[in-house]
Automatic annotation (TrEMBL):
<keyword id="KW-0479">Metal-binding</keyword>
<feature type="compositionally biased region" description="Low complexity">
    <location>
        <begin position="18"/>
        <end position="29"/>
    </location>
</feature>
<feature type="region of interest" description="Disordered">
    <location>
        <begin position="1"/>
        <end position="34"/>
    </location>
</feature>
<dbReference type="Pfam" id="PF03637">
    <property type="entry name" value="Mob1_phocein"/>
</dbReference>
<protein>
    <submittedName>
        <fullName>Maintenance of ploidy protein mob2</fullName>
    </submittedName>
</protein>
<keyword id="KW-0862">Zinc</keyword>
<dbReference type="InterPro" id="IPR036703">
    <property type="entry name" value="MOB_kinase_act_sf"/>
</dbReference>
<feature type="binding site">
    <location>
        <position position="192"/>
    </location>
    <ligand>
        <name>Zn(2+)</name>
    </ligand>
</feature>
<feature type="binding site">
    <location>
        <position position="117"/>
    </location>
    <ligand>
        <name>Zn(2+)</name>
    </ligand>
</feature>
<feature type="binding site">
    <location>
        <position position="112"/>
    </location>
    <ligand>
        <name>Zn(2+)</name>
    </ligand>
</feature>
<feature type="binding site">
    <location>
        <position position="197"/>
    </location>
    <ligand>
        <name>Zn(2+)</name>
    </ligand>
</feature>
<dbReference type="InterPro" id="IPR005301">
    <property type="entry name" value="MOB_kinase_act_fam"/>
</dbReference>
């Protein structure tokens, strides 16, 4: 459990608090909505906008698509070590994905602003919506959406009933459900950062790190059935954004199909 505890110690609070949103809305992240029910993404532009005809996203272009620190199979790093409980292995990795993604987001907060990113966009016609207190789907600026997710997630990771750290305490029976839910929201943050901020990621010279983290995230999600990308997209969003990146990586053999 020491790695798990170390991960806890490394966690950082998001840079901004959801209580400082311009609308004053709070409490959006209680309780857990059902996975898969709130992924709606109505097109924000007219039907003529580009599903396939727009400029190719930078992250799908050479050499960026191949930039990666990890060489070889991801299978070896997603497989649980011997004698490690699967739930514990998933928990450790969720901590690390959260922690690492929060680092990248922290480096991009100067660019991911209310003005630059008024919606949680992830493709030409793809926006993720957030369920409010009444489970109505609302559009939020990306930094607000991401801060809500990160704060909700930090709270969840600190909850001893969800992520037990003390010996003798078992993971709750709902842990797989919770893990899938966390995965879905982390995926959306990756999707937004790739879509809206990849140029800045390249300027920071961290595209190889970011690709490696995302490829690891996809490989781990596949191994433990945490992520079904097609379930995260609407028909408008299929083939867009990072779902296309994952497909290309499979074709290139970077990810297993
Ligand atoms: Zn943004």
């Amino acid at each position: 459990m020491s790695g798990f505890l170390n991960s806890i110690g490394r966690l950082r609070a998001p840079k901004r608090s959801p209580t400082t949103t311009p609308t004053g809305q709070t409490g959006f992240f209680d309780p857990l909505p059902s996975p898969g029910l709130e992924f709606t993404s109505p097109p924000t532009t007219t039907a003529s906008s580009t599903l396939s005809g727009g400029p190719k996203p930078l992250y799908l272009c050479q050499p960026f698509i191949k930039a990666a620190l990890v060489k070889g199979s991801f299978k070896t790093i997603v497989t649980p070590p011997k004698y490690v409980d699967v739930n514990e292995w998933v928990a450790i990795n969720l901590f690390d994905f959260y922690h690492n993604l929060n680092h990248f987001y922290g480096a991009l907060t100067d660019f991911c602003t209310l003005q630059n990113c008024p919606t949680m966009s992830a493709g030409p016609t793809l926006n993720f919506l957030w369920p409010d207190q009444n489970q109505r789907l609302v559009s939020l600026p990306a930094p607000t959406y991401i801060d809500f997710v990160m704060s909700w997630l930090q709270k969840l990771l600190d909850d001893e009933n969800v992520f037990p750290t003390k010996s003798g305490r078992d993971f709750p029976s709902s842990f797989a459900y919770t893990a899938k839910h966390i995965y879905k929201h982390l995926f959306r943050i990756f999707a937004h950062l790739y879509h809206a901020h990849f140029e800045q990621i390249v300027h920071l010279s961290v595209e190889a790190h970011f690709n490696s983290l995302f490829a690891h995230f996809l490989a781990f999600g596949k191994e433990f059935d945490l992520l079904v990308v097609k379930d995260l997209m609407t028909p408008q969003g299929m083939g867009q954004g990072v779902s296309e990146l994952g497909e290309r990586w499979r074709e290139m053999g970077i990810l297993e199909s």
